[in-house]
From TrEMBL:
The lineage of its organism: Bacteria, Bacillati, Actinomycetota, Actinomycetes, Kitasatosporales. It catalyses: acetate + ATP = acetyl phosphate + ADP. Mg(2+) binds at N14, E390. The record marks H186, R247 as: Transition state stabilizer. The gene is ackA. Pfam families: Acetate_kinase. The active site is at D154. Pathway: Metabolic intermediate biosynthesis; acetyl-CoA biosynthesis; acetyl-CoA from acetate: step 1/2. It is an enzyme of class 2 (transferase). This is Acetate kinase. HAMAP family: Acetate_kinase. ATP binds at K21, H214, L215, G216, N217, G218, D288, M289, R290, G336, V337, G338, E339, N340. Keywords: ATP-binding, Cytoplasm, Kinase, Magnesium, Metal-binding, Nucleotide-binding, Transferase. Belongs to the acetokinase family. It comes from Streptomyces prunicolor. Its EC number is 2.7.2.1.
């Protein structure tokens, strides 16, 4: 009798404050077997959508799911219905997205009590995300205590940033006492896209310098030198940097004192203003780039100004990162806006010929799910659209770590 094949499936769990996203992947070929989303956890109208890719079954339900524990149990039940349950011997590991790994976690890490304690210790710098991530991990560990569980950190890819980029110019003792520094986020996406861009150019990641523009509802840029991140636009929290769907990005910190002293606003009110009511939605009332483009086509000046502010900031970062890197081989657009909004790509690069950046109109207009070049053959710097795949990256990193563990 031939021996049972080594387990090769990885369940990726992304536990947010009121949601759980998941994907089950077969790491022999990266194929997705099932995926789903539980939303509005803790409300009466929680929503659950589960898709089994192998059978094509889609199951949706609405009804109260009180907490993350109940959500994960529901996920386990749905997977079981498709014979893909957590008890399957083919499951090699569970990979958890963890938003903040501070300076401690520079790579994916098999979770034990010490790791849990450290993720907990980091809650003050990620008060919205790390608690939800922890609940997801603890519940999954209770469901399968024997299975390796791996934390893949959003911040890890950025831990290679030099101190000159990672430190704010504030009093060092204060910064160190409160662990105030630039950590960066979207790290799995920047890692995946910078590698995939090198691939697209037919070169090794260690041979190329890439600027990655992750433009989704949250947005961040990174400068990746020979496969290592040397600068990124998000900081202590995901609020710094580019104009985003609902976040302001860069701001004179004195705006906050002004709102407190003159506007009489509380810390929480300002937090909500800058994280939820700013960016594109604050500027024009919409945070969906499709809607903004539609309004611009109808001559809406407010939408046009919002778009111009978004592009202006993006250009500043592209220029700055060209200066940080010195030599740039490629600029890669990714995430919802970067992958789909040709107008954003065109406007972001317009007028940057001096930096070697150009976009070919016909190539830019092509819609595709594949990584592709949109710069003309004569362009000195490759401009690319490279769809991101954070779940695949988390699964790949998880499997790379536990492959030996299971062998
Ligand atoms: P993400 O956070 O990566 O899922 O990106 C979500 C955002 O992508 C949405 O808020 C939209 O602004 C944008 N988006 C998605 N599809 C399109 C599209 N076809 N054209 C322009 N923007 C899009």
């Amino acid at each position: 009798m031939s021996p049972a094949p080594a387990p090769a499936r990885v369940l990726v769990l992304n536990s947010g404050s009121s949601s759980v996203k998941y994907q089950l992947l077969d790491m022999r070929d990266g194929e997705r077997l099932a995926m789903g989303l539980v939303e509005r956890i803790g409300e009466e109208t929680s929503r659950f959508k589960h898709t089994c890719v192998t059978t094509g079954a889609v199951r949706e339900s609405t009804g109260p799911i009180p907490d993350h524990e109940a959500a994960l149990k529901a996920v386990a039940e749905e997977l079981s219905k498709d014979q893909l349950g957590l008890d399957s011997p083919e499951l090699a590991a569970i990979g958890h997205r963890v938003v903040h790994g501070g300076q401690t976690f520079t790579a994916p890490t098999v979770i034990d009590d010490a790791v849990l304690a450290e993720i907990e210790r980091l809650i003050p710098v990620a008060p919205l995300h790390n608690p939800a991530n922890l609940v997801g991990i603890r519940t999954a560990m209770a469901l399968r205590p024997d299975l390796p569980q791996v934390a893949v950190f959003d911040t890890a890819f950025h831990t290679t940033m030099p101190e000159s980029a990672a430190r704010y110019a504030i009093d060092v003792a204060t910064a160190d006492a409160y662990r105030i520094r630039r950590y960066g986020f979207h790290g799995t996406s920047h890692a995946y896209v910078s590698r995939a861009t090198a691939n697209l150019l037919g070169r090794a990641p260690e041979d190329v310098n890439v600027i990655v523009l992750h433009l989704g509802n949250g947005a961040s840029a990174s400068a990746v030198e020979k496969g290592r991140c040397v600068e990124t636009s998000m900081g202590l929290t995901p609020l710094e940097g580019l104009v985003m769907g609902t976040r302001s990005g860069d701001l004179d910190p004195a705006v906050i004192f002004h709102l407190m002293r003159v506007g009489g606003m509380s810390t929480d009110e300002i937090d909500t203003l800058l994280n939820k009511k700013s960016g594109l939605i604050g500027l024009c009332g919409d945070n969906d780039m499709r809607e903004i483009r539609r309004r611009i086509d109808e001559g809406d000046e407010q939408a046009e100004l919002a778009f111009d502010i978004y592009i202006h900031r993006l250009k500043k970062y592209i220029g700055a990162y060209c200066a940080v890197l010195g030599k740039v081989d490629a600029v890669a657009f990714t995430a919802g806006v970067g992958e789909n909004a040709s107008a954003v790509r065109e406007a972001a690069v317009a007028g940057l010929e001096l930096l070697g950046l150009e976009v070919d109109g016909a190539l830019n207009a092509v819609r595709s799910d594949e990584p592709r070049l949109i710069s003309p053959a004569s362009g000195r710097v490759a401009v690319a659209v490279v769809p991101t795949d954070e779940e695949l990256e988390i699964a790949t990193q998880t499997y790379a770590l536990v492959g030996n563990y299971n062998a």
